[in-house]
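Per your request, structure below.
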């Protein structure tokens, strides 16, 4: 079975659009981009298309890599106060001279539609209503849509980033999965993935996950997105893994569109103070 993120994301966007039209809402989403990181430009373009599709206003704020941390903090403060903007994000990664932690902490938690503020992450950890990080929340939505159970399942998350691996582990624990988080310093990754009912990989290392590392009939979710000569590739060796997995996400068309759809849904929730 192919877990079709494109199809489900279209459903989510349609549902948000219907609510915006019915309530005649004016919602503004802003994205701050620093520099011209090529993957970031692609992601932001997809966010813009989705926002426009549902009838939100989209504001792109581009700054040069030379921007200081102080200036960027001031720009965030402007967006925190801007009545036209109900939600905004700072596209990551940021240049080295800027502390990502300081920047994310400056975003008003009520407008933090990426769910990266410590307060929102903490609320998520405690299973309180909050704006959840888009990629982890999107993965759970996709698994739920295809009725893949999580309770008591052995789930291996590969990657321990603050934006995917760590918050994903927290959401899975809140759903009573048995969670193992592996990462670049894990010894013998295959010894963990071999026992997994579900493997979720978010490393950006092409073809890291191969069929021989997996149990037959496992579920495989691929959050990787690396650019190679032949196009976009995920963390999973799709052609071999699809033969033994019971369900798998494609790249592109799996997790990526889900991330965008949840960001848009979060912006709607932020506009309604509904979290
Ligand atoms: N860079 C890669 N993924 C993301 C994301 O979901 N949000 C932001 N802000 N930056 C990213």
């Amino acid at each position: 079975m192919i877990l079709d993120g494109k199809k489900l994301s279209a459903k989510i966007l349609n549902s948000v659009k219907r609510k915006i039209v019915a309530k005649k809402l004016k919602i503004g989403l802003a994205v701050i981009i620093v520099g011209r990181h090529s993957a970031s430009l692609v992601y932001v373009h997809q966010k813009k298309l989705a926002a426009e599709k549902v009838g939100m206003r989209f504001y792109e704020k581009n700054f040069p890599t030379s921007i200081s941390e102080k200036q960027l903090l001031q720009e965030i403060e402007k967006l925190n106060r801007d009545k036209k903007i109900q939600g905004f994000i700072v596209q990551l990664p940021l240049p080295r001279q800027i502390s990502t932690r300081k920047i994310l902490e400056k975003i008003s938690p009520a407008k933090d539609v990426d769910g990266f503020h410590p307060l929102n992450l903490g609320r998520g950890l405690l299973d309180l209503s909050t704006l959840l990080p888009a990629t982890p929340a999107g993965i759970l939505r996709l698994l739920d849509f295809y009725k893949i159970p999580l309770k008591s399942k052995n789930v291996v998350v590969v990657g321990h980033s603050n934006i995917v691996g760590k918050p994903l582990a927290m959401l899975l624990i809140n759903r009573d999965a048995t969670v193992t988080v592996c990462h670049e310093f894990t010894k013998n990754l295959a010894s963990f993935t071999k026992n997994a009912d579900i493997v979720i990989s978010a490393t950006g290392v092409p073809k890291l996950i191969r069929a021989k590392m997996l149990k037959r009939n496992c579920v495989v979710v691929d959050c990787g997105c690396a650019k190679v000569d032949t196009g976009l590739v995920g963390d999973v060796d799709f052609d071999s893994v699809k033969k033994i997995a019971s369900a798998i996400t494609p790249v592109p068309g799996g997790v990526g569109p889900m991330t965008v759809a949840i960001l848009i849904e979060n912006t709607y929730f932020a506009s309604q103070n509904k979290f």
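The CA atoms of residues 17 and 263 lie 13 Å apart.

Regards,
D.
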